[in-house]
Amino acid sequence: QVQLVESGGGLVQPGGSLRLSCAASGSSISINAMGWYRQAPGKERELVAVIISGFSPKYAESVKGRFIISRDNDKNTVYLQMNNLKPEDTAVYYCNAVAVPKGYWGQGTQVTVSL
């Protein structure tokens, strides 16, 4: 079993930055991938960015060039640096971890981009 704890959400003005963190804990299983999804009100949950062991990070087109995902394997933590935030980035952001064949979700953290 893997537990994911997110932090770093909040309210920020357009053009601002936030950094999300997600720490994984639990049994000493191998986590193959970690990523971030988001869900805005009335919309489906969508992939924002994912980092898979041995591969380059992948990003949604809407965040390319603005968001950076990184992972500290020693700390079993994944980060999402969000720059030049836009109102359309407002959503609940969820951390996801895959330890084949299971997937795990964090509780979500709210990001609001508004004046």
How does this structure look, described?
It is a single chain. The N and C termini lie far apart (40 Å). A hairpin with a 5-residue loop joins β5 (46-52) and β6. The chain is mostly beta strands and 115 residues long. The protein has strands at residues 2-7, 10-12, 18-26, 33-39, 46-52, 58-59, 67-72, 77-82, 91-99, 102-105, 109-113.
What labels would you give this structure?
115 residues, mainly beta, globular
Distance N terminus to C terminus? 40 Å
Order of helices and strands: EEEEEEEEEEE
Roughly how many Å is the radius of gyration? 14 Å
Overall pLDDT, averaged? 94
The structure class reads mainly beta
Low-confidence regions: none
Report on the biggest sheet. 7 strands, mixed
How many β-strand runs? Answer: 11
Contiguous helical run count? 0
Please tell me what the overall shape is. globular
Percentage of residues in helical conformation: under 10%
What is the strand content? over 45%
Secondary-structure topology with pairs:
Layout: E1 2-7, E2 10-12, E3 18-26, E4 33-39, E5 46-52, E6 58-59, E7 67-72, E8 77-82, E9 91-99, E10 102-105, E11 109-113
Parallel strand pairs: 2-11
Antiparallel strand pairs: 1-3, 3-8, 4-5, 4-9, 5-6, 7-8, 9-10, 9-11
